[in-house]
Write a structure and sequence with these properties.
seven-stranded parallel β-sheet; alpha/beta; 11 helices; Rossmann fold; single chain
Amino acid sequence: MILVTGASGFLGRHLVAQLLADRAAVRGLRRRPQGDAPACSDGFEWAYGDVRDAVSVKEAMGGVKRVYHVAGKIDFDGKRLAEMRAVNIDGTRNVMTAAAEAGVEKIIHVSSVSTIGAVASPDRMLNEDDLGKGLGVDLPYPASKLEGERIALKFAARGLPVVVCNPTYMGGPGDVNLGSVHTAASFVRGQVWVGLTTGGFGYTDIRDAARGLRLAMEKGAAGRRYIIGGCNILLREYHNLLSKLTGRRPPRIRLTPWLAEPLAVVGRIYYRMLGWTPYVTRGDVRMGRHYWLYDYTRARTELDFRPRPVEESLRDTLLWLGDHRVIPPEKVAHLR
């Protein structure tokens, strides 16, 4: 039996689907029933609980041999800091403790590249050896993930077979909560008027990220860390690629982060008045000051991780958004 925490999330859904396609027996941990979550089926069952609740985690761990700890809380603004820390730190401790008591064979701890940090210019990249050394690791989300990852690594040092995966930003089809792909949707709707002069990030298709976790389970060494990423892309390049795919113009105005941060506060109010999801928040701008760019050699060589091109991933993302009426389908019909 394989336990997947966060099984109803964007990455968790794709991971569960791939595991079931391999005919694995999977148990997903989730907080409460949701109508849009995967239903129980042959080879799959739900365990109801919360990673913040040690008792429910221990119960879900019964009969489990392998664990994918995918559950996490993302909040770049830090407005839900207590909840984020409880999930990312206390939740990790609960999962590792229960796994150790259950004597599981192997655990994949899903962290984030934000625990490594960023660089000040696009001509540098960081790798797995730079944990906590880059810029921006003191921001609320990276700080909580870094503390959680260090807990997992402490358990690994004590002999628990933990492998850490650090995915980059993830796009692709199937983001029913529009967490990661709302930027692409906002671009197609014509809501992206201003861009930043700085910033860049690592990009991975969600389907490849899920496959990367499975490769880490099969080939990853205990105590080892792997950046799961497809490519590095600058914010300007990302907008230009969306423009190429959709025919919409990229932002004509680009601001420095110190000008964009107060504008993001005003923009948030304006977007809320229109009933739109804000394209960018103050926390996003703070992240966009830096370049979150990485060297993906380790996962390529040790896991044989081969992700698809970013343009293919964005095309599939846009088609999915059109198929689900998040954006007008006619805006992306030419991509078929």
